[in-house]
Design brief:
The protein is mainly β. It has helices spanning 2-20, 27-35, 263-270; strands at residues 23-26, 40-43, 45-48, 51-52, 60-65, 71-79, 83-86, 89-90, 94-95, 97-98, 116-124, 128-131, 134-135, 139-140, 145-146, 150-151, 156-157, 161-162, 167-168, 172-173, 178-179, 183-184, 194-195, 200-201, 205-206, 211-212, 216-217, 222-223, 227-228, 233-234, 238-239, 244-245, 249-250, 255-256, 259-260. It has a nine-stranded parallel sheet.
């Protein structure tokens, strides 16, 4: 009886660790669910392999432009059901954008030796949640359209977080997110008030040409490198209280409420 009680006691002590242990899930399993139109929900999981959302079964050719020096083809895949990941680790790339001709992976340098450019994008019809997750490799959402709420709150991006040209149509939450490389939100229009409260930017925070028509919350955010808001269009309520700018700011041609916005004005709002 004593031995049995000892085993039960050990099991009881191990239960919290077992509850928090991450299970391993192949990315192919997730893609299969998405292709079936099923909602995706994982907690405390390690996702192995590349989660490539650009090659779904519903992929369609959006644009085929000819007549120039090169042909251009844009393919769109659509995630039709809600996607939710909480406290998950992505060991491979998470791709909602892919350009096979790209030299550096973000589409800025393109090798067109084959005479054509192909770009693969992914749009999301329902809520998208990557909360308290870790992206160990690439995370690319360039050109993606989020038609519902999008939350990356508390997540860590080990490599560039590529959201350039992304379109958000619902609530946007990056509160307490950690960007260890470039946070690329260039040209993004944030139609709803955007939450970056407590976020950490360890490399450049690129909001060049971004617009915040309904305001944004950067309270207690930490910018350890350049905070690039050049040409950005800001509107109140913009909240900056407690924000820390350790790498300088570029506010050239930036505006707040359609008026010029300077570094001195920013400092007044930080207090």
């Amino acid at each position: 009886m004593t031995k049995r009680l000892t085993h039960l006691l050990l099991l009881f002590l191990l239960l919290p660790a077992l509850a928090w242990a991450q299970t391993s899930v192949p990315a192919s399993e997730i893609i299969a669910k998405i292709n079936r139109g099923e909602a995706v929900s994982y907690q405390n999981a390690t996702i192995t392999g590349d989660l490539d959302l650009t090659q779904l079964q519903n992929k369609t050719l959006k644009k085929n432009e000819s007549g120039g020096k090169h042909d251009s083809k844009v393919y769109n895949s659509t995630v039709t059901a809600p996607v939710s990941f909480t406290n998950c680790t992505f060991q491979g790339n998470v791709l909602a954008y892919y350009n096979p001709n790209s030299i550096d992976g973000d589409g800025l340098k393109v090798n067109l030796q084959n005479g054509k450019e192909e770009v693969y994008n992914t749009n999301f019809e329902k809520d998208v949640r990557f909360e308290k997750c870790t992206f160990e490799k690439r995370s690319a959402f360039k050109y993606s359209v989020f038609n519902a709420d999008a939350s990356f709150a508390g997540s860590t991006f080990q490599q560039e977080a590529l959201f350039k040209y992304s379109k958000f149509n619902g609530k946007i939450d990056f509160a307490k997110a950690r960007f260890n490389e470039v946070a690329n939100f260039k040209y993004v229009n944030f139609p709803a008030k955007t939450d970056f409260k407590g976020a950490s930017f360890n490399e450049e925070a690129d909001f060049k040409y971004a617009s915040f028509p309904q305001g944004g919350d950067f309270q207690n955010a930490v910018f350890n490198s350049l905070a690039n808001f050049k040409y950005a269009k800001l509107s109140d309520p913009m909240q900056w209280k407690g924000a820390s700018f350790k790498g300088g700011q570029d506010l050239k041609y930036a505006s707040l409420n359609q008026k010029s916005f300077s570094a001195a004005a920013l400092q007044e709002r930080i207090k």
